[in-house]
Each structure stands twice: as C-alpha cells, then as structure tokens.
Amino acid sequence: RWNVGVLGVRQAGFGAVDESDLFVGRVTANVFEESSVGMIVTDGDPVSNLDNSVVGADFRYRNTRRPSGRTVEGTAWYQRSDTEGVATDESAWGLEFSLPTSEGLSFTMRYEVVEENFNPALGFVNRTGYERVWVSSGYRFRPVDRPWLRSNQMWLSASQYDNKATGELESRSLNFRPFRLENHRGDQYGLIFRAEKEVLTDPFEISTGVIIPPGEYNNNSASISLNQASERVVAPSFSITDGDFYDGQKLTLTGGIDWRPSSRWYLNANYQYNDVELPVGEFTTRLIQLRANLAFNVRWSWVNLLQYDNVSNTVGLNSRLRFNPRAGEDLHIVWNHNSDALASFSGLSSRESEITVKYSRTFRF
Fold it and tell me: The pTM is what?
C-alpha cells in the first residue's frame, strides 16, 4: 500500500553559492480500489544561499469499475513554498476532472492557481501569478465500412491564463483538429487550426536585435502533418505550419526520417526550419538532429545524439553506453561533448567534454 521515496544530495559550493544539503521526500498510500493520496517535502536551494522549502499534498482518484464502463479520473493538489525573505503569495493548487477513453468521446477540465511568489527551488514552475482554465474534448471512432482507415480522431481544446492580482487576460489559445486519420499500417495524417492571443506587458528580445514591444497580439495559424508508422523500415515524417506571429508571419517546416535496417540498428535525421518576418525585424532558425542507436544484444546498447542549431552556433554530442545484465541493474557510461561551429557541423572548435559513469541496482524485498 505504501510507496516511499527519499533523495539526499550534498552539493559542493560554486561561485557565490555555499556548500549545501538538498533533500526531497515523497510518500504515497493506495486508497480505495485504484486511487492514492500523497505528500511531498523538499528542502534546499541549489542556486542560492537562501533557505527554501516546499510542502504539498495531493489526491488522485480513479475508477474503472463504473456500470457504464467509462473511466473517471480526478486530481486535487496543493503546494506551498517557504522562501527566506518572502511572506505572502507562496501557494499553488489545482483541480482536474477527466473522462479518458481510447475510443468515443473523451473530456478533460483543469483549473489551477499559481501565486506570484511560489518558488519550488528544487523543482520548476514555468509561470507564476496566474489563474488558468483548460478544457479539452475529443472524439475517436473506427469506421467499419472503410477498409483502408483504422480510426479518425477529432479534438478541441481551449486554455486561458488570467493575471492572479488584476484578473486581466494574459494569454488565450484555441486549438481545433478536424481530423487525424490513421490507416491500418499506423500512418497518420492530421490538420490543426490554432487561434492564440498574447498580452505582453514588457518588451522582449525574441532574437538578436529583434525586440517585440508590449501590446495585444492575435496569432492564428494552421498546421498539416504526415507521419509514417514507426514500424516501417523507412518512416518519413513532415509537417508545415504557417500563420500570424506578433503582427508578422511565421513559417515552420519540420521533416524527418527513421531508418531501421535491422532489429539492432535505428537511425534518424530531423530538420526544423523557422522563417519569421516581423515589423521589427526578420530572422531564421535551424535545428538539425542526427540519432544512431545500436543494440549489440539484450544486455548492451549504445545511444547517440548529434545536434546543431544556428542560434547558439554549437554542435552537441551525447553518447550513452548501457549495460543491463539483469532487470533492475544498469551501468551507464555517458560522454557529452560541445563544440562551437561556424556553420552546420563545420568549422568545429571544441568547447567542453564530460564523461559520467552511473551504476544503479534495485533491491526487491
């Protein structure tokens, strides 16, 4: 019934940050037939000398035994941080209700509040000082008279952020997917329309020398995607998104290809291109990713990722060798290497290199 997790870290000092102890504790208990209740505690701040702690509780409800056959899920959670020098607006809480299903009608509704000074120093929070409402509904059906079509999924979601202190709108988004077709091979073809509104109170630099001023912006766009099933020996994918972007235009092209020449090899190449034209300036971004994975046997595997982008003008390599002699036991040898680049994978100048060895073992009792 009980699940307990504890993590303790002794962190060396760096810069102006002193040596410190960091702690995370998590306890959950299974209740009813499929539900759970839990608590979490964190203590410490890895990037400052200020005292910081977080306490929280949550309840997760799940019922798959209803007479109708529909699953019902719900979540309620509350967290509060305590940061040295801060006395107010340090809480966050949320509620969620959903009727999930792999076929037919699904529905999810979520409400959450994150106060301005909520600061989980050992976690993360993308945004503070807001109230958010998020609603999503979808419908998936399997036609019996279409031998080439396995399923079609329609989907609609709406989200709105309001400023917690003033109640004024910060951002709103509406996403509508009229269809996502899937054939019996697993290939998918989809279309999405997006309508977004952003209210900027401060200017921000989106690219070097390109500063978007404060104001209200309506960004409408459409995206079409084609993805071949990953079970194929060669599986290409492609998507194109075009639409408004902060009183300008943005075109995004994404393409990739998976190649599985044998049961041991997996090769992949991905490319993303963004062309942005704004009244205050223009810029383009490019991201290139190359993957090569090799399974020598059931115990030894080798995973590699090589990546370049023209914003940082760097090439990064992550290479991981894994030894898994038995279930619950792993040895990882990881090599990370970064280089400055004059162009994509050319004119390389080594910046830093790092080797990490990690061993883990699970004891069952």
Answer: 0.84
- CA-based nearest residue to 24, from 129, 130, 123, 168: 123
CA–CA separation, 219 and 194 (whole Å): 8
Which structure tokens are listed for 96? Answer: 């969620």
Query: How much is the average pLDDT of 106-132?
Result: 96
Residues 75 and 58: beta-carbon distance below 8 Å = yes
Mean pLDDT of 89-108: 94
Strands (DSSP E) contained in 184-264 are 188-200, 204-207, 210-212, 215-227, 234-245, 248-259
Sign of CA dihedral 113, 115, 121, 126: positive
The alpha carbon of residue 249 and the mean position of all alpha carbons in its chain are separated, in whole angstroms, by 25
Residue ranges of the alpha helices (H) in the chain? none
Burial class (CB in 10 A: 0-12, 13-18, 19+), 359: exposed
Report the DSSP pairing between strands 91-99 and 349-361. Answer: unpaired
- Cα angle 57, 59, 61 (rounded to 5 degrees) comes to 170
Token couple for 357: 């060895």
Q: Which amino acid, 195?
A: A
Local confidence band at 169 (pLDDT 50, 70, 90 cut-offs): very high
The two beta strands, 104-114 and 130-141, are: antiparallel
The Cα diameter of the chain in Å comes to: 69
Q: How much is the pLDDT for 176?
A: 98
According to the model, what pLDDT value does residue 344 have?
78
Beta bridge partners of 51: none
68: tokens are 């109708």
Can you tell me the distance from the alpha carbon of 146 to that of 251, in angstroms, rounded to the nearest whole number?
Answer: 34
Distance from the Cα of residue 37 to its chain's centroid:
25
Percent of the chain with pLDDT over 70: 100
Is it the case that residue 75 has pLDDT exceeding 80?
yes
Give 43's contacts (C-beta < 8 A, 6+ positions apart).
21, 22, 23, 52, 53, 122
- How far is the C-alpha of 342 from the C-alpha of 332, rounded, in Å? 32
pLDDT band at 105 (very low <50, low <70, confident <90, very high): very high
